[in-house]
Amino acid sequence: MRHITVVDGHPDPSEARLIHALSDRYVGAARAAGSEVRRINLSHTHVPMLRIAEDFYGASAPESLRQAQEDIAWADHLVFFFPLWHGTMPALFKAFIEQTFRPGFAMDYGGKNRFPKQLFKGKSARVIVTMGMPAFFYRTAFGGFGVKGFERSTLALCGIGPISETFLGGAGGESKKRGYAWLDLMERLAEQDSAPEARRRRQFVRAAARAALLLAGSYAAYLLASSTSKAWMRTPAEASGNLTVAGSVTAEKEALTPEHA
Ligand SMILES: Cc1cc2nc3c(=O)[nH]c(=O)nc-3n(C[C@H](O)[C@H](O)[C@H](O)COP(=O)(O)O)c2cc1C
């Protein structure tokens, strides 16, 4: 049975927020698929701002976040939901990460000049972000940097992987139809996350099919190219269809000999 911890990172507790509906659906579907799920709602959690570096290196997480740390440590798979605010995560979510992903818990700095030891190896993650702009635009024009930084400099640095990412663009003003489609998507993602071996098998079959297609395509292109180049090299006599390639040179020589003799 998979242990999944879902972090609902929207600062606003209002039920009108899309993120809450999405994370609700994900949690329900993951439980229905057999996973054990814990949930952290940041809008109901006291998250003090981290202000002093010594607190980060030397102290443990504030009392209000100890349970959250336990839930993170317990999980095989972490799912983070947040809305895109000013190109990245809301400040409350960032404060939560700074307070919980501490040395000795998420990574171990050991000594000076040493690459941090990754304490979250073996965990995977999914990051689901809603945004007002089209997702394609965020990915291309903005390079998705505000989310990539979190994935690479925090999650991957602590040893978490693989990390999947879902961007839902045009959020806030989405049509009902689109909203329902996103809820259905959450169910599919929760089912996939609950059975990662089945997903890996599907990915392997798809990759093998793609490789076979590529190989078949390359071979067909090779056959086509070699037959066109042979046709190109034929003499006019061969092209007329009267002679074989092997016989043509001799036949032309013989035809020329009497005139030049
Ligand atoms: C403070 C704030 C900053 C925002 N910044 C961005 C932004 O940089 N890019 C963007 O596409 N949408 C931005 N939005 C729109 C939100 O991402 C969007 O309203 C949200 O994803 C909708 O989900 P919700 O109903 O759960 O809040 C911002 C919204 C707020 C309130």
Distinct small-molecule ligands in the complex: flavin mononucleotide
The strand count comes to 7
Q: What do the pLDDT scores average to?
A: 89
List SSEs in N-to-C order.
EHEHHEHEEEHHEHHHH
**Low-pLDDT sequence parts:** none
Give me the CATH architecture of the largest domain, please. 3-Layer(aba) Sandwich
Radius of gyration: 30 Å
Largest sheet: 5 strands, parallel
SS field, number of helical segments:
10
Identify the CATH class of the largest domain.
Alpha Beta
Structural class: alpha/beta
Instruction: Walk across the major sheet and give the strand order.
Output: 2-1-3-6-7
Structural topology:
Layout: E1 3-8, H1 18-32, E2 36-41, H2 53-58, H3 66-74, E3 77-83, H4 91-100, E4 107-108, E5 117-118, E6 124-130, H5 135-140, H6 145-155, E7 163-168, H7 176-194, H8 196-233, H9 236-239, H10 245-260
Parallel strand pairs: 1-2, 1-3, 3-6, 6-7
Antiparallel strand pairs: 4-5
Helix pairs in contact: 1-7
This protein binds flavin mononucleotide.
Walk me through the structure.
The chain is α/β, with parallel strands linked by helices and 261 residues long. The chain folds into two domains: 3-194, Rossmann fold; 207-260, no CATH class. It has ten helices and seven strands. It has helices at residues 18-32, 53-58, 66-74, 91-100, 135-140, 145-155, 176-194, 196-233, 236-239, 245-260; strands spanning 3-8, 36-41, 77-83, 107-108, 117-118, 124-130, 163-168. The strands form two sheets. A five-stranded parallel sheet has the order 2-1-3-6-7, with helices on both faces. Helix 1 (18-32) links the parallel strand 1 and strand 2 (36-41). The mean pLDDT is 89. The structure holds flavin mononucleotide. Flavin mononucleotide (FMN) binds next to helix 1. Flavin mononucleotide is lined by residues 10, 17-19, 83-87, 130-133, 171-172.
